[in-house]
Write a structure and sequence with these properties.
2 domains; 13 helices; single chain; Dihydrodipicolinate Reductase, domain 2; nine-stranded mixed β-sheet; six-stranded parallel β-sheet; 15 strands; Rossmann fold; alpha/beta
Length: 367
């Protein structure tokens, strides 16, 4: 195979972006051959895409008749796992828009189907292509920061007005989206918290406030407290009701602190281990010397197209995936645990019981 015939299902905001990128040959080795959407979107396809791109309104016909090698799924959240499973059953490679799903039960089923199919499966975690987060990950994974003690991410720069939520009846509903800020705005940050640190979460105690700043039924303000397997702790704060918002990620280790804020990566590097200083220092008041270092970050932020290109290269050249599909489960596990902790008003172990979570989610959807 020298060219991957790619289909796209879901012609929303991001679906249109992906369709343009593929149709304009911005992804090497890929050709857009088919799209699937609602009938009312046929005019957009006719006016904006090449004449050879086939348009379908029925997903089964799309999968059965379009002769695809690969598909990008950019539909509403609930449908992600089911559509991916259909694609794998047809021997089609899959790139899935975030989140991987709404609840872990069918995300686990999707991951099993991916393994059984042997096809290339990737997640659209486009911020993994950001050189700043790649540098952060490299510094942590190399041991430069030492043993991690704490993570702290304040992510409140995703302001949304009431008119945004009023623009569609399915927005900000349990039955339409399966959640609020955690499933819509926060998945990238939740993914990066785990991807950059490489640490496994043990449990979470969280507080989700539904309709705190908007007339909606799902959460628009969240504070979650994490405990990691190594004993480190973390705090994650997210909201769509603060202006101006903050986007600050701190990772504190035995050898200092790394901070990403305002598109800068800063390393407050200790000249000796804090644990070593604590055990040997005899002067009472005092602390280890720290150097403030502005870390140079080189490279281009390839964003969404970088993930698509990496996925195509994995299909054609067996290039390692930057964002493997099965890792989408981690964010859904975190989101489900945060919701469950808030609903039950208690600390919840990770992973959560898939059946218990699904039962309580259905109660939310039916209320």
């Amino acid at each position: 195979m020298s060219i991957v015939k790619v289909g796209l299902i879901g012609i929303g905001i991001m679906g249109k972006v992906y369709a343009h990128q593929l149709d304009k040959a911005q992804v090497n080795g890929a050709m857009l051959t088919a799209v699937c959407g609602r009938e009312k979107q046929s005019e957009w396809v006719k006016d904006n895409l090449s004449a050879n791109v086939k348009f379908y309104t029925d997903e089964d016909t799309f999968f059965n008749d379009s002769e695809l090698d690969a598909v990008i799924i950019a539909t509403p959240h609930f449908s992600h796992p089911d559509l991916a499973i259909k694609a794998f059953a047809k021997g089609i490679h899959v790139l899935l828009e975030k989140p991987a799903g709404v609840f872990t039960k069918n995300v686990l089923e999707m991951n099993e189907a991916a393994v059984a199919s042997g096809k290339t499966f990737a997640m659209m975690y486009n911020q993994r292509t950001n050189p700043m987060f790649q540098k952060l990950r490299s510094l942590i994974q190399s041991g430069e920061l030492g043993e991690i003690k704490r993570t702290n991410w304040i992510s409140t720069d995703n302001y949304r007005s009431q008119s945004y939520y009023d623009s569609s009846s399915w927005r900000a509903t349990w039955s339409g989206e399966g959640g609020g800020v955690l499933l819509n705005q926060a998945p990238h940050q939740l993914d990066l918290m785990q991807w950059t640190t490489g640490m496994e979460l043990k449990n979470v105690h969280a507080f989700c406030h539904s309709g705190k700043y908007h007339n909606i039924e799902v959460e628009d303000d969240v504070t979650a407290y994490f405990q990691y397997e190594n004993g480190a702790t973390g705090v994650f704060i997210s909201s769509t009701g603060e202006a101006p918002g903050t986007n600050r990620f701190e990772v504190v280790g035995d050898r200092g602190k790394l901070v990403i804020e305002n598109n800068k990566l800063t390393f407050f590097r200790l000249t000796q281990s804090e644990r070593e200083f604590n055990a040997t220092y005899k002067g009472g008041f005092g602390e280890p010397e720290a150097w403030k270092i502005d870390i140079p970050v080189k490279g281009e932020y390839l964003n969404h197209i970088g993930i698509i290109q990496n996925w195509i290269d994995a299909i054609l050249k067996d290039t390692p995936l930057l964002s493997p599909g099965d890792e989408g489960l981690k964010v859904v596990e975190m989101v489900n645990a945060i919701y469950l902790s808030s609903w039950l008003k208690q600390t919840v172990e990770i992973p959560v019981d898939p059946d218990e979570y699904l039962k309580l989610l259905h109660e939310k959807m039916d209320s």
